[in-house]
From TrEMBL, chains A, B, C:
The record marks 90 as: Key residue in conferring substrate specificity for N-acetyl-L-ornithine versus N-succinyl-L-ornithine. This is N-acetylornithine carbamoyltransferase. It comes from Maricaulis maris (strain MCS10) (Caulobacter maris). N(2)-acetyl-L-ornithine binds at residues 142, 248, 291. Residues 182-328 form the Aspartate/ornithine carbamoyltransferase Asp/Orn-binding domain. Its main location: cytoplasm. Carbamoyl phosphate binds at residues 47-50, 75, 110, 146-149, 290-291, 318. Catalyzes the transfer of the carbamoyl group from carbamoyl phosphate to the delta-amino group of N(2)-acetyl-L-ornithine to produce N(2)-acetyl-L-citrulline. This is a step in an alternative arginine biosynthesis pathway. Reversibly catalyzes the transfer of the carbamoyl group from carbamoyl phosphate (CP) to the N(epsilon) atom of ornithine (ORN) to produce L-citrulline. It holds the Pfam family OTCace. One of its GO terms (biological process) is L-arginine biosynthetic process via ornithine. Belongs to the aspartate/ornithine carbamoyltransferase superfamily. AOTCase family.
Length: 337, 337, 337
């Protein structure tokens, strides 16, 4: 049985198939592939677009979504094997995953990292435990990657410019008051390299290099399918001739959970906000950001409110791409294994 | 494209049309006017009746409602134009409104004032920003007015006594442990004057006068359509011969956000609870209150539990009037403009 | 009009009828008995299984469920008759129950005790007030008993071993870091005695005796329908020859709301976790626990992960038994009285 935990587990052709199906949904294709089926949407973190688009997408496919707020409205969860549960965790994923599997046909999970220990959190332990113990397919609604966002982003790019193979794709770190999860940055790198772009990662300092799991995956994808990956700290060189600019802020992994010491490095990126001046260096680039987005901190209003900004289309695409993912997973021969 | 932000934007005839449609729903008329459509219910504040009645109303019209708890379950929102978003606000209404518009066909919003600065809050900035940036109709589920409650109230009154034109309608301030939002008081004034009643506003002190926006609107409505508006502080005179008594507590606007200094004025209304003795002065009046309602603080049990009390009927009417509003907005020619 | 507040109000035959209907649903029987109807699920406490299974069950019967988080998302509720509501309670159950009844066809409520005063909380005042004032049937989703869990438990037992009359049924207190609600313990006692088992209640000290309301009800049930009830403190004697072992932790009622003084008694049960060694004393017993369950505190992994463990089947049965309950209540002649 197949899950949708990371696009890294799916081939470019498979992913393109999902994108093509999403396009068909946008063109009016109707599917009732979740008729009589249910989907549990389990949120350990806030959501606006994800909750709304998964719920409506399920409904459009004939199914029924249940939203579970895992912080507050349900029980704190343990995922460690053999854990002696005498702390604050009331329920083990082994039970939660099996019981939810008995009620629903798909389980979608949002669980951001906790900023405590990257060595364990980089293994994405909660969603991996769900996928191990569930007897129905599991969908990642953002953990340390955000694969549904990747598909929505790639679909919007293809709608704007066709295939992105050999295009120059700039993933730029941008300022933010707080250190953030690397999920969307990891995802930007994965999907752009998977589809053969020349990826530039612009950071204030090499300490902002993404986790080796994603860096090496991207190098493997481009080695196999075309494109390239490079880490840059020179702003002008990075923007020069870019076809796509994707903005994201994240915390430097060497300071993970110990963010006070990261402040001086963070200060080196104080001028990294995307401005019309920087955009002028590009090849009339399309610019985007996963929402929510802090205006005039990450991207200046003049860029957000220009035709170059693709963020709204990208967010709107969440609905059809997730319909394609749910349909593909629910349609697996044999259902629960 | 038309929104439903305040009844002040709709004519008496238009509002009567909504009430008549609501009556038809109560008599068994079936409409599938939201078939295949979705409604986002965005709550920045708690709700029992509003959430339940909007969800069920959407369902009865063939549509699907998504409930979004905007405090906690989703992102804090900025609405200021040009804001540098380096504080605690993660998302701008400009994005949220456009993205939600791409997923759903109607957006309904509850957002109470924050009791900080009436000069800005009286402009109802969050829902106005949603209405400006959304590409689908926006419905007010209570901000500084509560227009859905107004319709439910007026429908219940018409069911009890027919047209209220020239009836004596008493809006009385009542005690409450805390200073409250003026929304329902503003709304009571707007709808009673719109339908031609002789409106008496009974307050412990003239400092409880409602905002000039609503006072002058009510004077305009009665000048055009009959009826009158007067502010009173004499309890016996206010109850004398009243046909309707509507109870609400609110904070005096001159002390907005600085409530400590309001206490002495508030004490002047300590005996304003609605009691059988006061009701005996009326013309066998119908009495009501928007729910929730504190018993034996605002209205004595003996009045609430008498046949004069209309609050349950009024609350029950939320369902059909909101169905009428959603149907009217969803049916606009051209949909999103 | 009949509610589903406690299995104590239903005969063994009636309960068996609900279980048989649940089995039919598991075998593929389709019912649209909630077509066009709505159910309000009112949660004063967290939930995973209850929320999901009630929502999906409603959907499968053709109806529509509304989830109301009564802590935070809605208003604090008063239930006392004649209360002067000048504290933190904003809404009286008299209004909430009647208004909800005007919107929906069934009201289901979860409201755990507050650990303040057992003399008042043992009367289950909030759900009793809802049942008194609602004009539609009320379902207990766990208060000081958990009747839906009882049905799911009994159905799973019958699926494993047929009728439990004259079987030896051990309800064992197990360790937990905190004193807990007696609801599931009360329910275990009620349902096992109702169906004629020989019930042993194993506790670290006689202070853990359950409330007399449940002890005496169980004695009455077994006097009428066979079986027996005994309170035991000898672990080996209690496990000896048991056919069923059901685990639950609870606080000793004499220390209710004053838990610090309970600690020495609690320590006497430090070794009460269910282990393979204890299970070896039984008659190859089936073991279960209402979820969530703390592994390696209440039950050792080696037992949970053995074929003897019935907890997942029991949790899965929540869906069909609740469908049976909702169908039975919604189908009452005359509907609201």
């Amino acid at each position: 049985m197949r899950h949708f935990l990371s696009t890294a587990d799916w081939t470019r052709n498979e992913l393109q198939g999902l994108l093509d199906r999403a396009s068909a949904f946008k063109s009016g294709t109707v599917s009732r592939s979740l008729e009589g089926k249910s989907v549990a949407l389990v949120f350990f973190n806030p959501s606006l677009r994800t909750r709304t688009s998964f719920d409506i997408g399920t409904q459009r496919l004939g199914g029924h979504a249940i939203v579970l707020d895992a912080k507050g409205a349900t029980w704190p969860m343990e995922f460690g094997e053999g854990a002696v549960m005498d702390g604050d965790k009331e329920e083990h994923v082994r039970e939660a995953a099996r019981v939810l599997s008995s009620y629903v046909d798909l389980i979608a999970i949002r669980c951001f990292p906790e900023f405590k220990d990257w060595q364990s959190e980089r293994e994405d332990p909660l969603i991996e435990a769900f996928a191990k113990h569930a007897t129905v397919p599991v969908i990642n609604m953002e953990t340390i990657v955000h694969p549904c966002q990747e598909l929505a982003h790639m679909l919007a790019l293809q709608e704007r410019m066709g295939p992105i193979a050999d295009k120059t794709y700039l993933l730029t770190w941008v300022p933010h008051p707080k250190p953030l999860n690397t999920a969307v940055a990891n995802s930007s790198l994965l999907i752009a390299s998977k589809f053969g772009a020349n990826v530039r990662i612009l950071v204030p300092d090499e300490a902002y290099r993404l986790d080796e799991r994603y860096m090496s995956a991207a190098e493997r994808f481009t080695a196999e399918g075309g494109g390239s990956v490079s880490l840059m700290t020179d702003v002008e060189a990075a923007y020069d001739g870019a076809d796509v600019v994707y903005a994201k802020s994240w915390g430097a992994l060497p300071f993970y959970g110990n963010w006070g010491d990261e402040a001086p490095l963070r200060a080196k990126g104080a001028d990294f906000m995307i401005t019309p001046e920087k955009m002028a260096l590009t090849n009339n680039a399309t610019v985007s950001h996963c929402l929510p987005m802090r205006r005039n901190v990450k991207i200046a209003d003049a860029v957000v409110d220009s035709p170059a900004f693709m963020g709204i289309e990208e967010a709107a695409n969440r609905l059809p791409v997730q319909m394609a993912v749910m349909e593909a997973l629910a349609g697996q021969a044999g259902g629960a294994e």
